Amino acid sequence: MLHVKGRVLVGPDDVRDELWAVGGRVTFARPPGADDAVTVSGWALPGLVDAHCHVGLDHHGAVDAATSEKQALDDREAGALLLRDAGSPADTRWIDDREDLPKIIRAGRHIARPRRYTRNYAHEIEPDELVPYVAREARRGDGWVKLVGDWIDREAGDLTALWPRDAVEAAIAEAHRLGARVTAHCFAEDSLRDLVEAGIDCVEHATGLTEDTIPLFAERGVAIVPTLVNIATFPSLARSGEAKFPRWSAHMRRLHARRYDTVRAAYDAGVPVFVGTDAGGVLAHGLVADEVAELVRAGIPPLEALSATTWGARAWLGRPGLEEGAPADLVVYDEDPRADVRVLAGPRRVVLNGRVIA
User: Fold this and answer.
1) pTM of the model
2) Residue 341 carries which DSSP code?
């Protein structure tokens, strides 16, 4: 039995003095035998959410179980106890049997066009195959499917959309019929309107949002996961491709230069914004606190940025926070993270399924 006391942030305006974990579950009622419980003290939050990462993936493709485990442990040590795996070719279902590892919501494997995404990451198919592949990944995932919405077109020398409008309309309709939501990797501007008007639920990165498409996202309630710690790599990517693709390089620099303005404009318009790091491709895992700090740097109020990785993110993903009977997954800090989100970088205790594991 575990006793957490101090300030338990059940919600942004719901602060309790204590909770207990009994049988790995949260209770706010003092249980029998409470005097013998192990006690931890501090400011407690629901386990953080990284809503865009890739357990089982590195820059070459699928990785082995030992590497996947290390990725999950790095997220756990950072306090990220709920992960939305936004595309991976590896089978990580074995993680579900490990009570000491974060819980994962999978989006199956990326779906892209031939030679229009990172090698070894995605199913590479043509538009007439999109619907059956979306159906397949909807059945394999945990309620999400991941499309690649745009990527560099070598003939155009720049980012262009991958899918015709009728193909994404049919594919998204099929995913929804099967009870899955759809998200898409999108850096540029061109694919966004078609995807949103086709009914997409979320867009990853969304650096191509403009004053024309932001109101559409807000009206339709389409969420974005900006992955600003990943967008920070755009200048180095642009340098590496400048000799061969100067138009693409210039485009990437423009998207990077306005990244904070883009995120703030989306937030101000009412677009839902959530925390995701894009860890597992090139970036290391365990960067969730860095991404929250980036959202604040972009102009999102600290409490809203905190919600984007805790209460709000869990509600969006349909997973409980610190409520009666929920899994006791929480992170304890020495100071109030509402006052300064940089506190998230130094968890005092990480509790998973009611056990102090870090």
Assistant:
1) 0.97
2) G
